[in-house]
Write a structure and sequence with these properties.
The chain is mainly β. Helices cover 0% and strands 73% of the residues.
């Protein structure tokens, strides 16, 4: 298991074409097991998911996002496919659907995953919400010498 720095940039564009953007830089861990790359990190207050641990399972042609903690959620990103899930929060449960428009996985020989770039359409409880992008970059945590 390697200690890494995870940079997540997410954008959302609503019906009025107004775009919001969030950026999170956090420490995480990554490892590979049975041909699947795993990235684990803790979300923060900035993302609105304080107390949540996110795990990304990166396969050849699919990414599965699993959130645990104050929010429970599992979402699959498969190019051109609609994926349904249940988003459980302390305030209630919502049905989510996404359609993945693009999925690009860039590998690195040292840490496994270098970049994930995903664009998708989001529906909540059957209503279109937004067009989204998710860009995740991974780099090995630098070791400090004294």
């Amino acid at each position: 298991m390697k200690n890494v720095v995870v940079t997540i940039i997410g954008t959302q564009k609503d019906e009025q074409k107004e775009e919001s953007r969030i950026e999170l830089i956090t420490l995480g861990r990554c490892y590979s097991k049975n041909g699947v790359n795993y990235i684990l990190y803790k979300d923060s207050e900035i993302s609105g998911l304080e107390g949540v641990t996110t795990m990304l399972k990166v396969y050849d042609k699919q990414v599965t996002l699993v959130r645990t903690g104050s929010v429970e959620h599992k979402q699959d990103f498969r190019l051109g496919e609609k994926s349904r899930s249940t988003y459980v929060t302390p305030y209630g449960t919502m049905q989510m659907s996404i359609v993945t428009n693009s999925l690009k996985i860039t590998l690195d020989s040292i840490i496994g995953i270098k970049n994930l770039d995903i664009s998708y359409e989001l529906e909540m409880n059957g209503q279109w919400q937004s067009a989204n992008t998710l860009s995740i970059s991974i780099r090995e945590e630098s070791k400090r010498g004294y």
